[in-house]
Amino acid sequence: VQLQAFGGGLVQAGGRLRLPCAASGRSFSADAMAWFRQAPGKEREFVAANSKSRNRAYYADSVKGRFTISRDNAKNMVYLQMNSLKPEDTAEYYCASRLIWTVQYYNPVHYHFWGQGTLVTVSS
To answer: What does the alpha-carbon distance between residue 108 and residue 83 come to, in Å, rounded to a whole number?
Structure first.
């Protein structure tokens, strides 16, 4: 069971970036796939989640309309497309999975599997 996020980097404000997350093993049979982020000195926070059974995506208010989560089940990939990036989006981004959907999809404690983080830095 592995998740591997990559694609982070330095981007100017207003720019875009796509973060892929490669899943293997039981992690991709998971109903819930999500992205969280953690800025220096802050707690890990919810960004976006996707439910395979509900075919629906959920977003934090801070990224709604700018970020899009998607999954390619054939390739065992989850993506986070980030547009109109802001300096406050700077953080380490993590993908996570949970086998069964939960209404508390925004709470990181409910996720079973985590990938290593990938750093996104947005310059002003």
So the answer is: 24
Q: Is a pLDDT exceeding 70 seen at residue 73?
A: yes
Write the CB contacts of 9 (distance below 8 Å, at least 6 apart in sequence): 17, 119, 120, 121
Contact 95, 35 (CB under 8 A): yes
Q: Tokens standing for 75?
A: 């390739």
**Band of pLDDT at residue 30, cut at 50, 70 and 90:** confident
Half-sphere exposure of 21 (CA within 13 A, CB side): 29
Phi, psi of 2 (to 5 degrees): -140, 145
Spatial distance between the Cα atoms of 105 and 124, rounded to a whole number of angstroms: 31
- Spatial neighbors of 2 by CB under 8 A, at least 6 apart, are 22, 23, 24, 25, 27, 113, 115
What type of residue sits at position 16?
A: R
